[in-house]
Structures are given as structure tokens and as C-alpha cells.
Amino acid sequence: GAGVSQTPSNKVTEKGKYVELRCDPISGHTALYWYRQSLGQGPEFLIYFQGTGAADDSGLPNDRFFAVRPEGSVSTLKIQRTERGDSAVYLCASSVIGREMEQFFGPGTRLTVL
Amino acid sequence: GQSLEQPSEVTAVEGAIVQINCTYQTSGFYGLSWYQQHDGGAPTFLSYNALDGLEETGRFSSFLSRSDSYGYLLLQELQMKDSASYFCAVRDNQGGKLIFGQGTELSVKP
């Protein structure tokens, strides 16, 4: 079956613009996660969904970041007023509930803010 | 604060055995996972320990000692394709949040 997919694979934007990053989890995976990864670092947790609701959004760095998962499947990470420091690879992962230690990651979206 | 410490780089030769250590300091502990990431690729799950002891999955094994806040990943019969970054990650609550270490870059030489 298909793995986790993310679009776009690359996004270049200008400082101050708004961006949306999309994630399609593995079918049947109720849990969905967003992380971001800078060069040479490990993934940094942003937010975790169980079904449609955000179960833990403690990793969102500020109120410019927001994520939704309206139907419990596809999720969109939204970043307002982008800053150069937002440049990173944004990773999405999904898992079965009860096996949160085994997360399946997508290929990521590389965001570059000029 | 919450932190995971692992060596930044390890080098080994084909066919050898290598151990990558991870020590952690987190507010809670619900398990230690290991992930592999090739350059430009996505992290892929390797192994998971919730209880003390050794878990074996083919050429990869993972060990956990909760009393020492310590774990390691053991890779046997190293192959060139094992050259990658390896991350330990702690689940610090009953949710799905994983806290990752900074990664260990493994280079396997012929």
C-alpha cells in the first residue's frame, strides 16, 4: 500500500508570505504527527492529531503556525507571515493508535523562506 | 529540560559490529525508539524498547536500561548501505510526541 505522502516536495516563498503544507497519511492510521527538521538535527515535534482533534500542539513555536485535520485523514500545516527561521524540512508521520513508537514518515516538504 | 545525548559520528568497517549509545533526560518515559535516515530520505523505524532488556530484529538489536536512562542500538554484520544517520527518540507521555536526539552519523568503510 501507499506510504505517507507530502506535497509540495519543495516550497520557496518570500518572507511574510503564507504557506500551506499537505500530508496524506497511510490509510487507516488514526494518529498523525508533524515535525520539522533542520540540517544536522533530529526531527522536532510540532503537533499530534488523534482523529480530527489536535491531541498535543505543544511543539508549535508560536501562533503563526496552525494545523488542521478536518476529516481525520489529510492534514494541512499552515504558516502565516513566514520568517527566514522557518526554513526547514517539514515532516509528517502517521501511526496506528497504540503503536505510537512506530511512526511512518513521509518524504517531507523542504521549505525555503527568502 | 529534556535532552537526549548520542555521539555525533561513528565509523566502522564492513562486516563489523557497531554500538550507538543514547542517554536521555526527559520529564516522562514511555519508551525508546530508534530511527534510520539516509541522506535526503525520510526517517524509518528500526526498533522500540518500552521495558528493560534487549530487542532483536534481524541484524539490528536495541537495548534499554530505564534505571540508567540509557539505551543503545547494535548493528551487526555491517553493510555499506547501513551508512546513514541514526536517531534515538523518547516518547515522554501517553500521547504520540517523540523527542529525538541529534543523531549519529554512521559511516561504513570497505
> How would you characterize the largest beta sheet of chain B?
6 strands, mixed
| Molecular shape of chain A | globular
Termini gap of chain A:
37 Å
Supply the number of helical segments of chain B.
0
**How big is the Rg of chain A?**
13 Å
Classification by helices and strands of chain B: mainly beta
Strand tally of chain B is: 11
- Topology as H/E string of chain B? EEEEEEEEEEE
- Radius of gyration of chain B, in Å, reads 13 Å
Integer average pLDDT of chain A: 96
The low-pLDDT segments of chain A are: none
Question: Most extensive interface, residues per chain?
Answer: A-B, 28 and 23 residues
The assigned structural class of chain A equals: mainly beta
Total strands of chain A: the figure is: 11
Order of helices and strands of chain A: EEEEEEEEEEE
Percent helix range of chain B: under 10%
| Strand proportion of chain B | over 45%
- The shape of chain B, in one word, is globular
Mean pLDDT of chain B: 95
Q: What is the element layout, followed by pairings?
A:
The complex is a heterodimer of chains A (114) and B (110).
Chain A (H helix, E strand, L loop, with lengths): L4 E3 L2 E4 L5 E6 L6 E7 L6 E7 L2 E4 L8 E4 L6 E5 L8 E8 L8 E2 L3 E5 L1
Parallel strand pairs in A: 2-11
Antiparallel strand pairs in A: 1-3, 3-8, 4-5, 4-9, 5-6, 7-8, 9-10, 9-11
Chain B lengths: L2 E3 L3 E5 L4 E8 L6 E6 L6 E6 L3 E5 L2 E6 L4 E6 L8 E8 L6 E3 L3 E6 L1
Parallel strand pairs in B: 2-11
Antiparallel strand pairs in B: 1-3, 3-8, 4-5, 4-9, 6-7, 7-8, 9-10, 9-11
